[in-house]
Structures are given as structure tokens and as C-alpha cells.
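Anyone have C-alpha cells for RUN and FYVE domain containing 2? Sequence:
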Amino acid sequence: MWVCFLPSPALRDPMAMERANLLNMAKLSIKGLIESALSFGRTLDSDYPPLQQFFVVMEHCLKHGLRVKKSFLGYNKSLWGPLEMVEKLCPEAGEIAASVRDLPGLKTPLGRARAWLRLALMQKRLADYLRLLITRKDLLSDFYENSAVMVEEEGAVIVGLLVGLNVIDANLCVKGEDLDTQVSHPPPPPPTHTHFTAILDQKNYVEELNRQLNSSVHGLQGRVDNLEKSNSKLIEELAIAKNNIIKLQEENHQLRNENTIILMKAQQQLEVTQVDVDVELDTYKKSRQGLDEMYNEARKQLREECQLRQDVENELVVQVSMKQEMDLAMKLLEKDIHEKQDTLIGLRHQLDEVKAINVEMYSKMQTSDDGMKQKNDMITRLEEKTNQITATMKQLEQRLQEVDRDRWTAEDGTRKFKQDFVNKADSLQKQIAQREKQRLQLETDLKIEKEWQQTLQNNLERERDIVAQLSAEAQQINGLKKEFHRLQDENCQLTGICDEQEHALEELGCKLSEYFRLSYNQIFQGGQIWLKDKDANICKLCEKEFSISRRKHHCRNCGEIFCNACSDNELPLPASPKPVRVCDTCHALLLQRCSSNAT
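Reply: yep, here.
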């Protein structure tokens, strides 16, 4: 019968509840592993499901309360640190540690810790090594919190349970296994995520406990059925025994009647013989020889009758003893039936209690399912917010493109205006130079030839009119210069606004890329590490420099940064069932893998 260890309501401390849940899961997994291994009857391998479940539970127990160490790559929780200390406490463990370090396929501390657990189990020294470790509280305080399982009393209980695993023979292949999964450890999650993981752990524990209770219920039902069948068989045997007793009693009665009849006949025969003896005695005197013969015959008949009587009395004694034995067997059968009925009643009470516990576990599982539904609703709301953010990003990109187009048109206009202004200024300067030459020539002509004075004066007036027009045009040119300076100022303001918007967009893009990276890491818990936006200035593939028109895009497969032209492909990945952006290299590689898998 399985013993149910339910968390008490008095344990309000979440760490105490987690320790109790881990202890219960360790008890169930170790007990199930020992029972299944003994029934399995041969050496266990790496693919044995109860053994895989045991390693997962042991990994959770060793990870509980593990201190988070901050390094250059982020936050890190490593099981290899405390397990590596066993080599200093026990020199015999140095062989395992050296074997783990020499394994070529292990690259992470978590993989080394998993390999160490498997080698210690194969060596049948896992309980001894962990007992040495938990006795040194001063060394464990460097790796675990004060409320961790390995520091509290639950650790000693788990180590005591591990002693039973010494009866198991295991042959585990460490080289071929992928022990480096789930290498990256994100920063410590918020309290809501901790509560969520605690709920998931409790749900898994409740499901495991429900499965064990169902198996125990099925076993109890089988035992009840077997007891009912045996009870029915015993009742049938009791009825048969009663019938046999009745038959034996009838036979005994018949034998008694026959015995009385035989006795009566014997007495009658004795009386007849006595009469015959008297007659023969009377006739003895007449004939001694005939009397002796008859006397001998009578004596023989008497002996025969006495022997027959003795046989009948012996048979009667045997029948009486058989009756006593049958009465004793009847009493024993009735006592056995009463005891089995009592055990049947007790088993039914236990079955009712197990059913009540099963109903309570089912209600708790429903509450955990409701919590899961609430978390799923929160996830959908977060996805809606991300969709809104992407929509606003698209709007900002459209506005930025419009601003770029306006700026380009303004630059083209200013460039054309500059060219026209330069051309007009050159033409005006050329005209002024020509006019000056003509004026000098006219003055020299005026000095030389006075008769042409009138005509020269007329020409001079015309030239004055032209000069007035030129001065008006010069004033217009000055106004155009002022307009040009004003347009330059506006252009500077627009470029400043564009720079500010570009900087804001870059910051928003950085935040969004960081948000998407954290979202992908938290939701999918796997995949490649994204390259930061500030670490990439050129495209990984075409090596073109990024600008406000050539945006940065992450490849969801390899995590590198590419431009839009080199990453405009979409494919579904194992971490995301929906099609996501991938680069041209990953796109070709994934298509090649799909085609090879299809063939």
C-alpha cells in the first residue's frame, strides 16, 4: 500500500513546501525505481524510464536553493561546484571526477554534473559521496542557501533513501548521451515566474501521486476481487464439508443401527447356542464325541462373533474420531471466514479513504489547471501587447520613410536652387563686366569724339536703365540669398529632427530586440543567443553598413544581425511553430535539411 505524503497547510513557508514536495517526489521515484528494477530482473540501461525520472528528480533536489553566481556571461547556477568538492573529501571519488573531465562530449558544468551522478550510481557509491557532502555544512554554505534541501534535514532523508539503490545494477553509456541540454541560464525570474514554476511542480507532483494512487487502487481492487473469489471458493468448500459431515453422520447412524442389529443377532445367536449347548449337554451324556464336536463348533462361532463385535466397535471409534476432526475443521473454517470478512471490510474502508484522497487530488489538480489557464490568458495579453508594439513600429517606420522622402525632396530643391543661383550670379557678373567694358569704351569715345556726345548720353541713359534693372535683380538676388539661408536653417532643423528620430528609433529597436530576445528565451527556453544591436555595424552576409534606410534584423535561427535584403525569408523553427525571419544561409541550410529528411 502506498503512503501519501501531502503538504501540510501549516507549512506556509514556500521553501518548506518545496522541500516537502521534493522529498515526496524523491521517495516515490526511488521506491518505484527499486521495485521496477527488482521486477525487471536484469541490468538497467540509459533508456529505462524510471531511471531517467530518478535522475530528473535528483537534479531538481540538488538544484534547490543553489546560489546564483554572476559572471561575465550573466547569471549561472552550477551543480558541478558542490559535486566537485567530493573529490577533496573522499579520494576514491577522484577517479569519477577525472573520468568526467576527460569525456570529450561534455562542454558545460551541468553536463559534467549529470555524468558524475550516473558514474556514482554505476559505482554504487552515490549515497556515500552525498553523505560526506552534507556533513560539511561549511562547504555547502558557499554553494547553497540556508533553506536548501541539501542543507536541511530533508537532504539526510534523501541520502538515506539512496542507500537502497545499491541493490541495482546499471550499465549507463555516458559518452553517447546529450548531457549538455539546457545550458544557458537566464537571470533570476520575477516572483510571479517562481510561483508559476512552483505551481507546475505541485501539478507534476499531484499527477505523479494520482498515478501512484490509481495503481494502488487497481492493486487493491485486484486483491479484493481475489479475496472475494477465494471467499466464494471457501463458502463452496464449507458447504461441501457440511454435506460431507451430514453424510458421515448419516453413515454413522446407519453403522450404529447395524451394530445394534448385529449385537441383537449375536445375542440371539448366543441364546440359541446356549440352548443348543444345554441340549447338547443333555445329549452329552448320551454321546461325548458328538458333544465335543458341537462344543468346538460353538466355541469357534463364539470367537467369530466376538471378533466381529470387536471390529464393529473399532470402526465405531474411528467414525467418532472422524466426526471430532470434522467438527474441528468446521470451526477453523468458520474462524478463517470471519477473519477474511474482517480483512475485506478493512480493505473496503481503505479503498474509500483512497477514493476520498483521489477526489481531493483531483480538486487540487483542477485548481492548478485554473492557474494554468490564467497564466495562458496573461501570455495571450502579452502577445497582444507585442502585436500593438509591432504595429506602432511599422507606423513609425512609415513616418520615418515619409520624413526621409521630404528631406530628399528638400535637398534636391536646395541643390537645384543653388545651381540656378550660381548660374544666374555668373551670368550677371559676366553682364556687369561686359557693361563696364562698354561704359569705359563709351567714356573713351566721349573724350575722343564729342560729336557723338548726344548719342552717348542716350546710350548712357539706356545703360542707367539697365543698371537699375541689374540693381533690382541684385536686390532680388539678396532676397534669394536670405531665402537660401532660411532654407538652410530649416534644413538643419529637419536634419536635427531626423537625427533625434533616428536615435529614438535605434533606442526603440534596441529595446524591442532585447524584449523579443528575453521573450523568446523565457517562452521557448532554448535556441541561439542573439547578438546585441550595438555589437554589429555591418551586415553579416553582404557586409554593408547599417543606416536609417538599411535596418538591422535578427535571424531567429543563428541569432546574427543582417539587413532586410539578406534576411527576407520566413520558415517555421522547432522553437516557434509560426514562420519567423531567417537569413539566406540558414534558409538554404534548413531547406537542405528538410529535403534530406524527406528523402
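The two ends are 52 Å apart (CA to CA).
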